[in-house]
Amino acid sequence: DDEIEALASLLELDRDEFRALYTRELRGGEVTLVEKRNNECVFWDRNAGCKVYVARPQQCRTWPFWSAVVHSSETWQEEARGCPGMNQGKRHDAASITAIAAKDGTSSDV
After folding, report:
1. Is the dihedral of CA 8, 14, 20, 26 positive or negative?
2. CA-CA to 58 of 20 to 30 Å: which in 66, 73, 97, 101?
3. Which residues contact 6 (CB under 8 A, 6 or more apart)?
4. How far apart are CA 69 and CA 79, in angstroms?
């Protein structure tokens, strides 16, 4: 709810309007952002990047250090093939990655 409130505020929408336009409910009852037809986030722009970066949800802030991704080197490499930002930039130590993955914002830890 806090993340939806932050995104709605950034986009100058009320919470219900934001939910109707930009979210969907998963089978387990969790709420997620809708995706474009190519499965990219509705707020991702290939030329400009994330259009809601300052209010992005926890799972976006912790990517790619999700527990499901750091679980094995094979999974990491598979995800890296589809994400041009992975394996770029600052390196993180194992303890930092483990701490991030423990609170990655995906359904397994909420």
Report:
1. positive
2. 73
3. 55
4. 7
The stretch 16-31 carries a mean pLDDT of: 93
pLDDT tens digits along 44-86: 998 998 999 999 999 899 999 999 999 999 999 999 998 878 8
CA dihedral 59, 71, 27, 33 (to 10 degrees): 20
Task: Please give the Cα distance from 102 to 87 (Å, whole number).
Answer: 20
Residue 7 burial (C-beta neighbours within 10 Å; 0-12, 13-18, 19+): buried
E-assigned strands of 2-109?
A: 23-25, 31-33, 44-45, 49-50
Task: Write the CA distances from 12 to 16, 30, 45, 84, 107, integer angstroms.
Answer: 12, 24, 19, 31, 27
User: How many Cα atoms occupy the beta-carbon half-sphere of 94 within 13 Å?
Assistant: 2
Question: What would the two tokens of residue 100 be?
Answer: 């991030």
